[in-house]
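[Structure tokenization] protein backbone as discrete codes
[Encoding] learned vocabulary of local backbone shapes
[Protein] chain in single-letter code, fold in tokens
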Amino acid sequence: MAAVNMTEGRIPPKLIGYAVPLVMSNLFQLTYNAVDSMVVGRFVGKEALAAVGTSSPVTNLMVLGISGLCVGASVVMSECYGAGDEKSLRRAYATTMLSGGALAALLLTLGLLLARVLLSAMQVPLEVLDAAAGYLRIIFLGVPFTLLYNCTAYALKSVGDSKTPLYFLIFSSVLNVVLDIVMVGVLRGGIQASAIATVISQALSAVLCLSFVFRKMPLLAVRGDEWTPDRGMLKRIWHYGSVTALQQSCQPIGKLLIQGAINGLGVDAMACFNAVGRMDDYACMPAQTISSAITTFMAQNRGAGKDARVREGFRDGMRLEAAYGVLICLLTFLVRENVMRLFVGEGQETVVAMGVSYLTWMSLFYFYPAMTNGVQGWFRGMGRMRMTLWATLTQITLRVIFVWILTPTVSVTGVAFASAIGWTGMLLLEVPILLRAQRTGNA
């Protein structure tokens, strides 16, 4: 595959051509956990499904912390590529890999030591605590591979190649499905076997992606002297990356607090929240990938000094976000009951009914994250990472507060209302700042 220069040519095809493979890539990545939940729920039981679900906020926190660093680094790499500075591009990639390795080692150690402590703090019921802790420890063994894959995938995306990471994820996702069915469904290995299948699939995806870069992508193939970290570049990467990691980590931290409220409602609510949480992931993910396309487009064109093209690209990106928002709202309303029955077996009508109520309301609310993600893409592309952090903190704080207020009365459906309140607060904070920047010529 070749790099894609977004500083030239018609804008909508550039954005769509970048976003579509990225959507597919993220769909396959989400399939890891979704398949775990489906197979575990059907072959092991609702207690095991609850155990996997209650572990998800912790694993998401780990993944988003790593990907946040890589997103920040990709902005630096996109600027280098847009400016035509290939040596700095490779140095940025190498610096991210080396510094990210230290982060992965820290997360792995903390995850193995504190898995049970974290779950206990989330008020996980005793009947699922041991299973959830065992599952979580195995998942943390895959942290180095998560770092390796994300760092390499975002380097490819920074130069406009969103297709290559997709191919490796297709392979590893299919492998994950096969291993899950064999190890859990046929051999009855329980949720620990499901975690092992996920780690094996992640490892292969990471190794294959890295191998491709050094064999087929000389633009990113780091040479001997380029493996020395560049202090100035490290400072920029960690400035962007640490703020982005904090911003992305706010969501799973908030979800940890939300999960605590759900855990107090019992196993049925926990199983339901796991299932609808997967739907949330799938529904919001394309909006996030369009946002990534906006970020990469803007960063490349900022590096090339094409300010007018930056503004035009943002407008086209928001049109794509709006069209997707309408589509996902309609689709969610039509398939809400079928989605719930994918995750639970026969005789779990209470869980299904709770999920259908939640998704009915979310079929009205999913338009909000389409808009918030587009605006976040603008701020990241402009290098204004702190604003994305403050906006996300506002959103998740409102969401957590209203979850704890509403769920005792309306159960899991209260999470839907709380989400809408959080997204509204986020837009009220960001949009005036964005409009002011555009009026003053800073966009």
Residues 81 and 89 are 6 Å apart (CA to CA). The longest helix spans residues 46-82. The mean pLDDT is 83. The chain has one domain: 11-439.
